[in-house]
TrEMBL record:
It is found in: Membrane. Its main location: membrane. This is Stage IV sporulation protein FB. Residues 33-98, 113-168 form the Peptidase M50 domain. GO terms for biological process: proteolysis. Belongs to the peptidase M50B family. GO terms for molecular function: metal ion binding; metallopeptidase activity. Keywords: Hydrolase, Membrane, Metal-binding, Metalloprotease, Protease, Transmembrane, Transmembrane helix, Zinc. It comes from Anoxybacteroides voinovskiense.
């Protein structure tokens, strides 16, 4: 099977989508649901096709009524540029979708009402997806940006805190402007749940990033950054300071005097092969 066609087998519908389909049956809003479904589907396929193009491992494409999630088996070790393209590939689909629909309307193939509905759905999906709230595309861009300036672990925590802040402002807006809109509340609940899960999984997410760094392909680092650490700090504390896409040397000091320099692989080896996550790095020097 062609690898792009194989992506279709990874499409799953979120339970909320079935719920909405049920509501559509009762309220005869089939057309709206179909249009919404098609837009979300193409948006997610945009992410997946570009990811496939970079040979990422695509886990599944989950479709929700108000957007979707293209889940990847990648943990923060792909080049910055690839991640940026994969993330932007979703929102970029709306450009040609809207452009195409506009042409169809101009040539009288699409009625004005349908064009308007299509346009509004596209705008709503893009606007929602670009909110800097995890796991929306805007949240992913925020995380990517933070990893440029902060260690991976700190960037991940900060990203969740910023996401919560933006979400609470958005909740205020919903209460004030559209408190009766159930679909917006469904989105809010979904995002609150996703953020809570992401926060809870923080240690595993950092661990996966490090494991992938240890076992995965080496040599895609854009920059070299030495890390100076006290000999009393644990191996885990030091690994927690690793940056995405940057190669590290670890300079171990005691009372401001340099004691040893380790390559990052030596530390990763100590952590994962020798299971010495909780010992002070100083112990690695003396045996
Ligand atoms: Zn997206």
């Amino acid at each position: 099977m062609n690898k792009y066609v194989a992506l279709l087998t990874k499409v799953h519908l979120h339970p909320l989508f079935w719920l909405l389909s049920g509501l559509a049956v009762m309220t005869a809003h089939f057309k709206q649901l179909f249009i919404l479904f098609s837009i979300v589907f193409i948006h997610e396929l945009g992410h997946a096709v570009v990811a496939q193009r970079f040979s990422w491992r695509v886990k599944r494409i989950l479709l929700l009524p108000f957007g979707g999630v293209a889940e990847m088996e990648e943990h923060g070790n792909r080049p910055f540029r690839e991640e940026l393209f994969v993330t932007l590939a979703g929102p970029a689909q709306h450009v040609w979708l809207v452009g195409g629909a506009l042409l169809l309307w101009k040539y009288d193939i699409l009625s004005f009402a349908h064009w308007q509905l299509f346009f509004h759905y596209n705008v709503a999906i893009v606007a929602l997806n670009l909110l800097p709230v995890w796991p929306l595309d805007g949240g992913k861009l925020l995380f990517l940006l933070l990893t440029r300036f902060l260690p991976f672990s700190r960037a991940h925590r900060q990203m969740i805190i910023y996401s919560y802040a933006v979400l609470f402002v958005a909740i205020g807006g919903v209460c004030f402007l559209a408190a009766k809109q159930l679909d917006l509340w469904a989105i809010v609940v979904f995002l609150l749940f996703s953020l809570w899960k992401e926060w809870k999984h923080h240690p595993y997410i950092v661990m996966r990033f490090l494991l992938e760094r240890y076992y995965g392909k080496k040599g895609q680092y854009a920059k070299w950054r030495p890390l100076t650490v006290e000999e009393t700090e644990t191996v885990w504390n030091v690994l927690d300071k690793f940056y995405r896409g940057q190669k590290h040397s670890i300079i171990v000091v005691k009372q401001a005097k340099e004691r040893a320099i380790f390559d990052e692989n030596e530390l990763l080896h100590a952590a994962f092969a020798d299971k010495q996550l909780n010992i002070p790095v100083g112990r690695l020097i003396y045996g």
